[in-house]
Structure prediction request, 299 residues.
Amino acid sequence: MDIFTMRCFVSVSDNQSLTKAAREMFITQPAMTAKMNAMESELNERLLERGRHTHLTPMGEMVYKYCSRIISEYDEMLDNIEQAELESHRSVRFGFHGPHDWAGIPQKIARFHQMYPDVDVEVVIDNWQSLLDDLQSGALDLIVIEGSEVEGMGNVVSVPLFEERVCLVVHHDSPLIRKDEVSVSEVVEETLIVPDMEISPRFLHKYYDAMKQVGFKVRHGGRGGNYGAALTLVESGLGFGCVPLSFCRSDSRFKAIPFNDLDVHLNYRLAWARESASAATSQFASFLENEDWPHDSVE
Prediction:
């Protein structure tokens, strides 16, 4: 008699029905009937009174108590095994914004795992504001974020990783594709696709102000919920994008063209909660801090 058969017997008793028990255990009613018949044959006892409602015989009531106790002990054993496995495997919940291969993150995680095979890295890709919310709530342990978003936050520790300028991003069908740099005056009348302010309130506020100062009319006719959504609209031919180079570096569909008269850059920082950093989080943070990051940094 296996544990599943015991669960089936308990379900039949609790539901007082072979049909309802079969539905609860995700098997057919004939299969449930066969299991109960086989159980009675194995014990050489009648356990169930079958009729409009299925009831336990006196012997069935005794067997029910033993089955319930065995199932409870078995489930407790499984829970303890799972807990022991969790305690022996440390984990870090890590978040960043961008494409899945942003800034070589997959390769960095692979190198970290080679060095620390007992630490599991869980990855979340989301916008910066959501990542920061998750960091503060404890849902994430470590994030990469634009530095403006954590500036002055006493409960968050952050260290610099690298900086890069915002570039004009065009699809390969664009007439600007042959240019190596571009001025604001050349594209100021075009539709500019920008991310929603909510994804990074502090940085994008600074970003929009800078574009206005050099003559851009920031239009919200085309907007993306994140930088990936903005690039989707660029590929659709709805306008140009202004995004960090690292967000489209590995995507052959686009070309990033530096501005020669717009100097807006992003300051990427690694951030974690000051009071709740685990040993595994500190290990991963130290590892990432010492990794190589994109070289096209702001001079």
In short: The chain has two domains: 3-87, 91-289. The first helix runs from residue 3 to 15. The longest strand covers residues 156-171. The CA atoms of residues 222 and 238 lie 7 Å apart.
